[in-house]
């Protein structure tokens, strides 16, 4: 069973998924309110998966319900804390950009996160 602290690379995978959703331009209709509402009601990952045509973050979150729940809770917390002050991040229009910024904020705070185990070096 998975549990915190979560590898920082898990959030990187989520950010790759958000970048993918932003890149095509097909999801520019996602508003700040869409992200806030989906985070608050716990359907954010399902919503992102739908936007991605059935996959999000290369399927990384499948089989990781505890991490997914933790992530959505952190996003919901940021939405509540920053409600009406999203401009702090320079975000005014696109919900996916707000989501990307809030994910970066989670990384910056570092709660329940760990750096990946270092790759051992081999000396010759």
Describe it for me?
The protein is mainly alpha-helical. It is 54% helix and 3% strand. The protein has a single domain (10-110), classed as Up-down Bundle (Four Helix Bundle (Hemerythrin (Met), subunit A)), CATH 1.20.120. The chain is built from 5 helices and 2 strands, in the order βαααααβ. It is globular and about 55 Å long. The termini are far apart.
Keyword list:
mainly alpha, 5 helices, globular, 124 residues
Topology:
Elements: E1 6-7, H1 8-23, H2 32-41, H3 44-51, H4 65-82, H5 95-109, E2 113-114
Parallel strand pairs: 1-2
Helix pairs in contact: 1-5, 2-4, 2-5, 4-5
State the gist of this model:
The chain has helices spanning 8-23, 32-41, 44-51, 65-82, 95-109, and strands at 6-7, 113-114.
How many DSSP H or I helices? 5
The stretches of 5 or more residues where confidence is low (pLDDT under 50) are none
Percent in helix: 40-55%
Number of strands: 2
Q: What summary fits the major beta sheet?
A: 2 strands, parallel
Second rung of CATH, namely the architecture: Up-down Bundle
Question: How large, in whole angstroms, is the Cα Rg?
Answer: 15 Å
User: Strands of the biggest beta sheet: in what spatial order?
Assistant: 1-2
Question: Structural class, from helix and strand content?
Answer: mainly alpha
Share of β-strand residues: under 5%
Helix-strand pattern: EHHHHHE
Q: Could you tell me the CATH topology label.
A: Four Helix Bundle (Hemerythrin (Met), subunit A)
